[in-house]
Structures are given as structure tokens and as C-alpha cells.
Amino acid sequence: MNVNQSAPSALPYGQPQPVYPGYQSSYGGQPGSTVPPTPYEASYNGPLPGYQQAPPPGVSRAPPPSGAPAPSTAQASGGQATYGQFGQGDVQNGPSSTVQMQRHPGSQLFGSAPVLSQPAVVQPYGPPPTSSQVSAQLAGMRISGATASAPSHSGLGYGSPTSGSFPNSGLYGSYPQGQVPPLSLAQGHPGAQPPQRSAPPQASSFTPPASGGPRMPSMTGPLLPGQGFGGPSMSQPNHVSSPPPQALPPGSQMTGPPGPPPSMHSSQPGYQLQQNGSFGSVRGPQPNYGSPYPGAPTFGSQPGPPQSLPPKRLDPDAIPSPIQVIEDDRNNRGSEPFVTGARGQVPPLVTTNFQVKDQGNASPRYIRCTSYNIPCTSDMAKQAQVPLAAIIKPLARLPPEEASPYVVDHGESGPLRCNRCKAYMCPFMQFIEGGRRFQCCFCSCINDVPPQYFQHLDHTGKRVDAYDRPELSLGSYEFLATVDYCKNNKFPSPPAFIFMIDVSYNAIRSGLVRLLCEELKSLLDFLPREGSAEESAIRVGFVTYNKVLHFYNVKSSLAQPQMMVVSDVADMFVPLLDGFLVNVNESRTVITSLLDQIPEMFADTRETETVFAPVIQAGMEALKAAECAGKLFLFHTSLPIAEAPGKLKNRDDRKLINTDKEKTLFQPQTSAYQTLAKECVAQGCCVDLFLFPNQYVDVATLSVVPQLTGGSVYKYACFQVENDQERFLSDLCRDVQKVVGFDAVMRVRTSTGIRAVDFFGAFYMSNTTDVELAGLDVDKTVTVEFKHDDRLNEESGALLQCALLYTSCAGQRRLRIHNLALNCCTQLADLYRNCETDTLINYMAKFAYRGVLSSPVKTVRDTLITQCAQILACYRKNCASPSSAGQLILPECMKLLPVYLNCVLKSDVLQPGAEVTTDDRAYVRQLVTSMDVAETNVFFYPRLLPLTKSPIENTTEPPAVRASEERLSSGDIYLLENGLNLFLWVGASVQQGVVQNLFNVSSFSHITSGLSVLPVLDNPLSKKVRGLIDNLRMQRSRYMKLIVVKQEDKLEMLFKHFLVEDKSLSGGASYVDFLCHMHKEIRQLLS
Ligand SMILES: [Zn+2]
């Protein structure tokens, strides 16, 4: 195999393969683990077939003439009855010798295992450095304090920042390659070449270090951009032949056999972490590498002289680049629709724009998995340590060109289900006996087909009406639920929204109350509506509070609203039923009058104390009295210290950071809120909390109810109308208008062999299987982890079915079903080839963020590192070709795992900087818990966009650059966003014309630091930048407030916090250092 034989770039995935013979017959392994019935069981007799809507445009429902799906190879494979959507193309786990699809062409190695070989440390060799070069380099090196004191175990950069160890400040302009990177422990080779990112991966060769002997030209590993280092040029991938012997740098302690490339480390003290035990005489000859990575030498198998190793720089361009991976995926997969027909297809990355065609599996917008190929046995899974998880966003918003799930109405009989496991009818169910019965694909139970659902089968065994029924041909669809699926066997009333406004002193003084009341007047016209309904069915109610609660009667027949005060907050009750929850249009005059009066009524308040739990209690009781589900919108400013249930005390204590008690900062200080949340869930009462704190408010405790009820928390610290109104109002509008499913229960069923064992997200669980959500909005995800409970089968694969029972915003009870079929493998390489790193990181971050509730943060971090090392070591051991231990080999699909994991490790929750408050950490912790994959991706690795590099006419989003200070040019302007924050960084030597056009001031020094709004100027640059900002904001679920940061300004420290490839002020490792550390961990596991 050689590098140039890599898979065609156009088809990185889904290489057509012969059918999956036998797929159809293998469903349903053992009956065995049957799933207990849901609380809402429905009989399935006598359904009326048919669904409400016409087939979607663009989705063909008509069976192809042959009765088989499109270009089906199914029948060719032996005339077996085949499932329509399956058994054709795109089966991914072919024989290992074939070229497999993978994210990047050109990436595979031995046995088709995509291997990314990387030098772990440094070694930009190409043409071996001459001694003089090396000397020059050494002379220019700086050994950072952190390096010198590098702890032997905790790894690089994990300690607290050593002062002076990383001049993170103001070293702009020092970007040239040869320069010592301020934050890097490792040093750059002076001769390092500029990035060669543009080189197509195929052409690049990753010459792994040789272990000598004849080896397969395994170097098919994609060369990382820039890996060349003068090494084999991009066009000479396979350097199996001997390159010139490498010169040893002066001072090198290498004693290895001929050939080990020079170690840059050798004489560099302080780099022992990476090098430990490296200089191996053990390594085989390395002659074959003129390659970029003769890096091997550094990692020998014998302990080296640790203390004497110099820091060395691993060239940042030589390590896997998130930007490159994102770009490649966009180029390779962005142009063609992702068709979900085949089992186990890895979807395009979340950063790629692509269209989805549902042909039997749920769109990746609804479900993404950590791997689309699951090990057949639990032993394999344990060995690999790759978490098997699905990130499910059941009500995800779809782009306009993709149809919402069809609603199927089976009439009084309700949806058709398996008698035993209660799985819903889906494309994977197999009809037998001429269509009179069907075998459940989840539990294998044979069920009778009710007479009214009967249909004949075609010669392939497929129902002839398969394409006319969403539940037989699509991955996602909805069923109208019958009364059996409703609480108390009664169809629900439409939900209600209750606005509960803090009117204490701070809320009034900041202008919040006035702003909010004014906004609500118009916002109430935009409550969620069902489909094309003219008006929203949602009723609204209003409460204001400080130490006491004020309820308002806004009945349409009243001339003026009436206030009722409840001061007995210990025993909350709702003083009125009639007139509290009203239709907006009917009561508009009264509501408007109320909203006008509220700011005036409390204008002179002196009350600073607030209650909190009684407010939620009141809202919940009101919904209970009205017998409906709903949502509370709480606008709250302070720690609730007034005497009342749920009263809190200030227990913030930063001294607990890095102690075993740090976890208490994340735990609620009283269990009262959990109890309250449970009652809310039972009532279908979801709580969205808008916080406006001027100081510590104990977000960890206040967010318990929102978190357990599927709600959201928004936080606007030190809120001031003039600075923050745009952000708040934008979030509020979006939040109020969001489509929400109320009073929901979600269940994930799986085929025999695996089962859902763990769940993460904003919800409540009272048993081990049902995820209860008082509310579930379009942005929320539920993460589900799976474990084996039996052996899986390669032929039958593994199936997931997520069923969400909910009440729509019009009060209709529905079931939304998402189905997904995954492949199963007996070769670990197949697992590694079908992983999704973004999804893995999403899972791992959530796992870690939950872990801090119960374990010391350091333990959580160590666990993540160990797991990552195990994942990569397992790959190295079982899937990669044998090669020098000095070489870091990463699976192609996981080559970004280290960089992303490092971002998680150094995030505020796991490694807070001095400026991060306890509330910030608790806030972010709960936010991440229900983020989808796209959100965690940009949150942990922000997007950094250069603004003046591309032609001004080009208004499309410019290609991002890596999040590192080195990538900033002082002559340019950059936008940085992570989904929550948005910065505009202005270099000190930006052209004056640019400054004028963007800021309307004459020079850089006149730009106001911290500016949050760009002037609206009529010139192309101003329009372009403002357009880009608008565009970025539209992509995110929360409004990102802009902060203009000038180079070398104080605010820049804040900005640099987001340059995640660099070492952080809080001691977080740079990417380069972390990669080295990870390599060391892997080597330890392998030795
Ligand atoms: Zn079943």
C-alpha cells in the first residue's frame, strides 16, 4: 500500500460494498433482555393506517420499480429479502485489507488502519539539522520554569502556573517560527519550515520512524500538514529507502544504533517528561527516515537522562490541526447530501454544512454517536475504552430544506408496538408469514400484525406499502398518541407560560424590570404556535416578587389588573385561579396595563431581600391548579436570603479550589431544590432561569430546578441596561419562542446485546430507564451511554430507538421516534475507523463535568487523561503497525482527540483561572450538560477568524486559523467566538484605513477597548464585519455579546484565555505539551 493509494477524496465514507447478506434475517438476537414496558402503554389494535401529511417533497416514497431501493445491490447478493434501506452500499466494515472510508483520504496504514503517525516530540528533522543549526537552536531556547519543575507524574503544565514560566503576555510580533514560543515547553527548531497545510493529505507522507527492517510502506498515514520539515517532500511519501544518516546534534546522548535521528532533546535539560526513557539504544536502526518524523529517536525504551533534557519544540504545524480537519471535511463531504439509508455511516462533522436525506436512519441532527461501529463484545469495548454513547437531540431544529418528521395517526389503536419490549414500529421490524406477523428487531418477539395494518410483502419480503408509511421507511417520524399515553387518561390542556419577575431593589435599579416589562408587551405575540395556527394556544400568567409574592388577575373582563399578595411564603398557595392564566389576545389590554404599571409600582422599593424556592413553588402550584404543563420564566437577581424555604447562605469559598472539598462548590447547598424539582417534573413544570447577579448567587443551587426540569439558565453578571440589553432581549426572545415539548418522557430501546446504562442532560430520572423532562426544547440534548450485556453480531448490527412522548405547544400528545442502526465489529480497527471525535469529546466533557460533583477535580482530570491514553494506546497496540515507541500514532478519526481533550481539561470547570468565579463554573457546568456536539465543539475549541486576509468583496466566512497567539498577526483583525463569547481582536499595526472604516476613529490608539457595538458605517469592510458578526450570532443558541480587544491592552488577557492551543494562565498545558504528555502516558501503558 502506498500513500497515494488512499481512498478517493470524494468518497471518504461510504464506499459501496456488497450487501450485507443476511442482514434482514438476523434481527433480533436472543429475546433475553426485554425491556420493561413504558409507563404509557398502548394497545395496538385496530389502527387506521395512514398518516396525516403528504410525502415530503424530495423524499421519494414510491418504491422503485423493482421494489428494492435505489441502486440496490441487495438483490444481487443472493436474492435474499433485504431491508430496503439496508444491505446496500455504504457498509463500512469490509475486510481489513480494503481501503476503508475514513475521514481523510490517504490516511490509512497497515491493514487499512488509518494511522496518523506523529512525532511526539519535536523533531522537525528533515534534512537532519546540522550541528550548527542545532547549536543555534539551543542557544535560542528558553527553559521555562514549568519545564524545569515539571513534575514527573502529573505531566506537563498541569501544575499551577509558575510565575515567569510562561510569558503569556504581550509577545506579539514574535510569531516567526524559529522563535521560542512563549508558552511552549518545547522548543522549535530554527529551521522549521512554514506550515505546509495546503498539501493534500494524500501526498504527504508520514513516515513513521522505522523500526528498521523491511516494513510495509505503511506510511500511508496522512501527513499532517506541515509535517514535512524538509523531510521527504510531499511528493515522496514512501521513504522506505534510506535517507541520509542523521546527524547527531552535539551533545546528543543517543547511543542508539546507527540511524536514530538526532535528538533535539539530548542536551536540553528540563524536558524530561517527554523524553523520559527515551533515548533508546534499543530502537532499531532508523535509517529509513528522512522523514519528518524521525522523532522516534527520542523515545527509546530506556530511561534517558531525564534532567538533562532541554525543552524542545514540537512544531505546531506538525501536529494535527483542528482547522485542517474541519476544512478537509467541508471539502470532502459538504457538497453531497448525507443519505441515511446505510447502517453505521459516520456522518460529516458538525462543522460541515450538509443536507440530510432520511432513508431509514435518524439524521445526525437528531442523533450522533461516539462510534458507528460497536465492538461485538464487552471485552473488546473494555479494551478500547472508547465510550459508546449517543448524543440525542430529539426536537432538533432542521434547516428549511429538510422536512420535519411526519405525523402518523393510527387512530384509536395508537402506534403499533412490539408486544414484549414495546418498541415502536420502525423500518427495521421484519414482516414474515406473508405479512401477517412481524418479528421485533429489538427483542425478536414475533407479533401478530393487526388486520387493519396488514399488507402484502413483495418478493424481497418488504411490505409493498413500505414507502408510503413513514414508520416503515424513515428514521424519524411522529405518532399521534392516544389517551392511553396521557396523564390520568385525559388529553392534556395547552401549556401555560408564567413570567415571574424579581422586583427587589437591584432589579429595579438596574433597569431590568422596566426593560423586561416593555419587551414582554411585544414578545407575547410570538409565543410558540403549532404549525400554521393563527395564534398560540399557550396561556400566560404574571407574578412579581421580592420577599413576598404578588399574583395578578389579568382576566379580560377587568378594566385594570388586580394584585394579590401572598406573604406566607412558607406555605405557598395560589390566591386566584380564574384570571391568572389567560389568553394573550383576549386579555391584551389588561396585560399591557399591568406591564406598564409594574415598573412604577416598585420604583421606590427598598426591599433588597428575595425568596426563590417559593416562587417556583407558586408557579408549579398554579400549573397544577390549571391542570396543565408549562414553563416558568424566572428573572432573578440575588442570593435568596429572605426567611423562606430554600433560603441560601453565601458559602462561596475559593480556597476550596484544588482541595478534596472543591466538589461542594458544585453541589447544591440544600436538598430542598431537588425535592421541589421532583414536584415540578411530576407537574410538567419546566423552569427557565434568567439571573442578573451583582455578586455570588449560588448558581450551583439555583440551577438545580432548571436543570432537573429540562430548563435553561442564563446569566448576566452586573447587568446594566445600556450594556446588556441587546444580549438579554435576544436570549429572551429566542427562549420564549422556542418550540418546547412538555411533560415528556424519553426512552431509548436497543437491540439485544447492548443497553442504555447512563444518561446526561437536563432532566430527571425516577427509575433507570425513563428520562423525564418537564420540558424539552429544540436546543437540548440527552446523552445516553451504552454498555454490552451480551455479544453483538456483525450481521445484525445494533439498533437504537429513541421514543419521546411529549405534549406539543398546542396541547397535542405525540410520540417522536428516532431510529438508528449501527454496525458491529470484531476488529478493533473498525471501531477506530468509525469514531467521531467531536461526539466523544462531548460525552467526555459531560462525564467529567458530572464527575466534579462527586470527585476531586484532579481525579476527574486524571481519569480523562488516562482514558484518552488508553484509547490511543489500545489503537497503537492493536491497530497500528509495529513501530518505534518514539512515535506517536493516532487513529485518523481521533487525531484531534488530544487537542480537544486538552481544551476540556483546561476549561474553567476543570482548571479555573483566578478570574473565574464559582458561579461561572457552576453555570458553565450545567450549560455543557445539555449541549449538542456542535456547541461543545466550538465551546472547547473556539473559532478564530482573520478578517482582513480575504478580499473584501468576499463576504463568506473566512477560513479559521488555529486558536493560538502565534497565529495572530498584528496587522490583522480577528473574530473569536465559542458560542458564548465573541471577541474582535485588533492588532496594533492594523492599517489606519481599516481602523477608520471599522471604528470610525483615526488611529489604533483611539479605538475604545471593550467596545461592544461597532459603529454602523457605510463602507464594504464595516458591512462585511458586521454581517459576519450577525451571522455568527445566528448560528448560536445564545446571543454573543461583542467585546473589542486591542492588542496589548489589559482586556487581552481575557481574550487569550480562549487561545486554547497555548498554555493558559491557570496552568493548562499548551497543545504541544499536552500531546507530548499524552504520548508519554501512552508509552507507559504500552511498556
Ligand atoms: Zn420487541
From TrEMBL:
It comes from Echinops telfairi (Lesser hedgehog tenrec). Residues 1-112, 148-345 are annotated as: Disordered. Keywords: Cytoplasmic vesicle, Protein transport, Transport. The gene is SEC24C. InterPro entries: ADF-H/Gelsolin-like_dom_sf, Beta-sandwich_Sec23_24, Gelsolin-like_dom, Gelsolin-like_dom_sf, Sec23/24_helical_dom, Sec23/24_helical_dom_sf, Sec23/24_trunk_dom, SEC23_SEC24_subfamily. Residues 415-453 form the Zinc finger Sec23/Sec24-type domain. This is Protein transport protein Sec24C isoform X2. Its main location: cytoplasm. Residues 492-736 form the Sec23/Sec24 trunk domain. Belongs to the SEC23/SEC24 family. SEC24 subfamily.
